[in-house]
């Protein structure tokens, strides 16, 4: 301790009274030794507070010295057999390298990464051998978000464990034939193995934070015992540039997520070069996390540095460590011991004296902290035991550790995937892999005999921790019954005369019904992003409460109202504030709870469809990868529905985005009975049958009457299209009008105009899901392609339209591309015309907006007449008459260009 105090003394270069300083430091040392660091901290805080109140300006700093956070004398040493663990790690390094190199020698375009696992191997080994529990009796298991680029190392470990075969290793990144290994963690492709996808980069840290909070939520509500479970997330220092990586660290601290451990692999490099060549990424991240209230543990230097730091009585070494930038540190590890002696220790003559008795090889063996098992174990143990705050471990490593001149600490390390024979030989020798020279050219995998002491040790460690990881549960063990469709009678019947409601209101009635259900009520997870009142859901505040681990420490300003704002320790609502990405991350945690917690939860995340789908696009794709199950509710959907908010509030493309995710079931219902049928079917598929799908349902805040469910139309609703009403059977001409969402009502009004003004009948088709209709058509088209001699399959929409006559006009509140999806499946020879809302949105009344985007009843009528004229059943002059009659300006600019 006195040596450290001497260092602090020396750092005050302009100290006018060193004796006084010495007395203060001696006093502090006495407090620490006799009363402990907590007392010392209290006294220092009191001194700082007094100084500030007396007017002293004391600059704030959330940084500590560029040394390990845990002093050597407080380190808990790893209790394992380090010889066995080192050999196991070496074999995993070799097999990971061999997997990638062999794949690229066979096919140079497959890619793969060696260097990330090379820098992480020690950390992953310590975690798997000593900390991370698998699901077992009495423990739900820890959750691992593994750095995506390190997947070869995870496969290499699973190979030694007997969970992955050599044939699978040989098919790394070759998945089409069903026996390969995915490039990154992909639960969709390896549903029994990977728990979470962690690419695109930045999603892992964000999802892990909300996953940790969801574990607290489940525990507080008595649904699952999660008290002893941890969420561990590994990410790279370059990955921390992603806004998603850092975006929720304040929430993690505010929510006291002491079940969360973030490990940042600080190898100082990203793909192209240094992360902070002119700075120090570890210090930058320390300031960010410490300022946000996290427990920050830095693991910078390996054990060889401990003796040097102990000799550093004048603090010169610490000062040089701090002043050296990351770009220099990379150079040191890419060169050799002589270079380090000259360019690092040579920065001060006293440092050269310090290492005078060390050879260049000794200097080269001064490792970074992330490659020492004892340093890592001590940091992991600190994180495991920490209470009250989340923990971040900033661990300094070498990218490509062990790859030698071919990649170690070089800017090209990330892309290196093809090693020459000499590099392979060097790696074999460095890690003592027992493969003879005459076999090296084949780069064989190495696996010792099952009865070898190392393999017995490997299995024993995992047995002690409950089993193997990563592993994923495909289905929850519990079976929950879902209500029959009749349970939603309050929205299935037609609205009373003079009564108008929106589909948003219908949804609120549905979720209220579900909350009262004796089987599912407690499993409903309403997730909101500060728009509850917009969607009429504020009544849930008092009914089921808003989850807050502290409860409500204040009296809400609206306590005298029926629907006051109520927070509760066991609240059911997850209120995420103005935070779509956070809301989606909570939804993902709930939507995958069947797998991570063996508890079926049913999340309903309600958001503005425009903001939601645009901002959560990458997360929505990750949800598909994770086989999520739940409901995404896109409120105020459509380009012309949210009429007064302006360009960036109006959604004309969320359904285009939803259509890109194969296991997303997107619906754009118009009527309350359609919403009920869709939600009930979603419950059946996701809860009762545990199918790996999720639903995107758009809702509108426009009030109108609802016709009620006609028995027999349920199947058509779910398939995506059904006949809502038929036109006059006696009319000479006929058209087919297709619509969805609020614009279906414009088609209904257009049918009235066609009959009244032009004597033309119109059959009206409600299309709750043009995307599902298109998928059905594509499936039939594909089957017919590869089965040319079999009886052709007829797409569902083709079978519907073949029974009708006249041109077909499809109109939606979305881009034309939405309805264009089904053009290929229209009967041959039939005109198919599409109207949509391409272009930028703007503020105005719904009537004016629908006129501007040319999707109102008048444009639909003219479109139908134009189609009839093109087919030769009416004169073109009739269309011109209609244009004039309805006041349509032929010279009006195209809305796409406005």
TrEMBL record:
Q: What is its EC number?
A: 1.2.4.1
Residues the record lists as binding Mg(2+):
237, 267, 269
Is Protein transport given among the entry's keywords?
Answer: no
Which SUPFAM superfamilies does UniProt cross-reference here? Thiamin diphosphate-binding fold (THDP-binding), TK C-terminal domain-like
EC class, as a word, reads oxidoreductase
The cofactor(s) it depends on are: Mg(2+); thiamine diphosphate
The record's listing under Pfam families reads: PDH_E1_M, Transketolase_C_1, Transketolase_N
| Reactions the enzyme catalyzes | N(6)-[(R)-lipoyl]-L-lysyl-[protein] + pyruvate + H(+) = N(6)-[(R)-S(8)-acetyldihydrolipoyl]-L-lysyl-[protein] + CO2
Residue ranges of the PH domain? 1-33
What are the entry keywords? Magnesium, Metal-binding, Oxidoreductase, Pyruvate, Thiamine pyrophosphate
Has UniProt tagged this entry with the keyword Metal-binding?
yes
- What role is this protein assigned? Component of the pyruvate dehydrogenase (PDH) complex, that catalyzes the overall conversion of pyruvate to acetyl-CoA and CO(2).
State the NCBIfam families in the record: aceE
What name appears for this protein in its UniProt entry? Pyruvate dehydrogenase E1 component
State the species of origin: Massilia polaris
């Amino acid at each position: 301790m006195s040596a450290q105090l001497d260092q602090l003394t020396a750092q005050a270069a302009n100290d006018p009274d060193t004796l006084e300083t010495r007395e203060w430091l001696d006093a502090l040392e006495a407090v620490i030794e006799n009363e402990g660091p907590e007392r010392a901290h209290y006294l220092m805080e009191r001194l700082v507070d007094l100084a500030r109140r007396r007017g002293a300006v004391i600059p704030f700093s959330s940084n500590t010295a560029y040394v390990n956070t845990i002093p050597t004398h407080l380190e808990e040493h790893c209790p394992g057999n380090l010889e066995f663990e080192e050999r196991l790690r070496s074999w995993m390094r070799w097999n990971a390298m061999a997997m990638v190199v062999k794949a690229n020698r066979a096919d140079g375009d497959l890619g793969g990464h060696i260097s990330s696992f090379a820098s992480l191997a020690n950390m992953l080994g310590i975690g798997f051998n000593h900390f991370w529990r698998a699901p077992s009796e009495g423990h739900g298991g820890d959750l691992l978000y593994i750095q995506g680029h390190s997947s070869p190392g995870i496969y290499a470990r699973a190979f030694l464990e007997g969970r992955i075969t050599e044939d699978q290793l040989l098919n790394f990144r070759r998945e089409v034939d069903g026996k390969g290994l995915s490039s990154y963690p992909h639960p969709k492709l390896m549903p029994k193995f990977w728990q979470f996808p962690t690419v695109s980069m930045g999603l892992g840290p964000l999802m892990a934070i909300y996953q940790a909070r969801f574990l607290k939520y489940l525990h507080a509500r008595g649904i699952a015992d999660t008290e002893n479970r941890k969420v561990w997330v590994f990410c790279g220092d370059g990955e921390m540039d992603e806004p998603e990586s850092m975006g929720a660290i304040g929430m993690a601290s505010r929510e006291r997520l002491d079940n969360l451990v973030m490990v940042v692999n600080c190898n100082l490099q990203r793909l192209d070069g240094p992360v902070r060549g002119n700075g120090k990424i570890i210090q930058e991240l320390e300031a960010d996390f410490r300022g946000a209230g996290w427990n920050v543990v830095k693991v910078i230097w390996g054990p060889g540095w401990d003796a040097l730091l102990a000799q550093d009585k004048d603090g010169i070494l610490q000062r040089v460590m701090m002043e050296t930038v990351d770009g220099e540190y990379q150079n040191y590890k890419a060169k050799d011991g002589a270079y380090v002696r000259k360019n690092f220790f040579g920065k001060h003559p006293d440092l050269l004296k310090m290492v005078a008795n060390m050879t260049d090889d000794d200097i080269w063996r001064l490792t970074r902290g992330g490659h020492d098992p004892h340093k890592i174990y001590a940091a992991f143990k600190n994180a495991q035991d920490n209470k009250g705050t989340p923990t971040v471990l900033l661990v300094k490593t070498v990218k490509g550790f062990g790859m030698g001149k071919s990649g170690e600490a070089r800017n090209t390390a990330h892309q290196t995937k093809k090693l020459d024979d000499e590099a392979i030989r060097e790696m074999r020798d460095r890690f003592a892999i027992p493969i003879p020279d005459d076999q090296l050219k084949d780069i064989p995998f190495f696996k010792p005999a099952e009865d070898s002491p190392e393999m017995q040790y490997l299995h024993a460690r995992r047995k002690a921790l409950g089993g193997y990881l990563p592993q994923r549960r495909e289905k929850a063990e519990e079976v929950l019954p879902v209500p029959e469709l009749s349970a939603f009678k309050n929205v299935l019947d037609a609205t009373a005369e003079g009564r108008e409601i929106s589909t948003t209101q219908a949804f609120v009635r549905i979720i209220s019904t579900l909350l009262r259900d004796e089987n599912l009520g407690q499993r409903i997870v309403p997730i909101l992003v500060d728009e509850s009142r917009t969607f009429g859901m504020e009544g849930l505040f008092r009914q089921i409460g808003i989850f807050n681990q502290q409860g409500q420490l204040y009296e809400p300003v609206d306590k005298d109202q029926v629907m006051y704002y109520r927070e509760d320790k066991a609240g059911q609502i997850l209120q995420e504030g103005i935070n779509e990405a956070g809301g989606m991350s909570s939804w993902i945690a709930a939507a995958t709870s069947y797998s991570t917690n063996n508890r079926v939860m049913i999340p309903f995340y309600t958001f503005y469809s425009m903001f939601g789908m645009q901002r959560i696009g990458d997360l929505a794709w990750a949800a598909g990868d994770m086989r999520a199950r739940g409901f995404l509710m896109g409120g105020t959907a459509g380009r012309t529905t949210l009429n007064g908010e302006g360009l960036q509030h109006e959604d004309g493309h969320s359904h285009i985005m939803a259509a890109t995710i194969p296991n997303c079931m997107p619906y754009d219902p118009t009527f309350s009975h359609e919403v009920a049928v869709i939600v009930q079917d979603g419950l059946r598929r996701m809860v009762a049958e545990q199918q790996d799908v999720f639903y995107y349902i758009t809702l509108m805040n426009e009030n109108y009457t609802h016709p009620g469910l006609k028995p027999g139309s349920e199947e058509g609703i779910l398939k995506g299209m059904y006949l809502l009403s038929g036109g006059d059977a006696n009319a000479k001409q006929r058209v087919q009008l297709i619509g969805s969402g609020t614009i279906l009502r414009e088609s209904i009004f257009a049918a009235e105009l066609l009959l009244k003004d032009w004597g033309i009948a119109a059959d009206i088709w409600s299309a709750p899901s043009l995307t599902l209709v298109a998928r059905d058509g594509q499936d039939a088209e594909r089957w017919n392609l590869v089965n040319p001699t079999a009886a052709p399959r007829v797409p569902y929409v083709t079978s519907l339209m073949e029974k009708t006559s006249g041109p077909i006009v499809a109109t939606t509140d979305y881009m034309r591309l939405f309805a264009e999806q089904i053009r290929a499946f229209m009967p041959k020879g039939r005109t198919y015309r599409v109207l949509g809302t391409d272009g930028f949105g703007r503020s105005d009344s719904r009537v004016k907006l629908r006129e501007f985007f040319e999707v109102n009843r008048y444009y639909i009528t003219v479109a139908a007449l134009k189609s009839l004229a093109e087919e030769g059943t009416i004169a073109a002059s009739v269309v011109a008459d209609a244009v004039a009659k309805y006041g349509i300006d032929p010279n009006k600019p195209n809305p796409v260009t406005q």
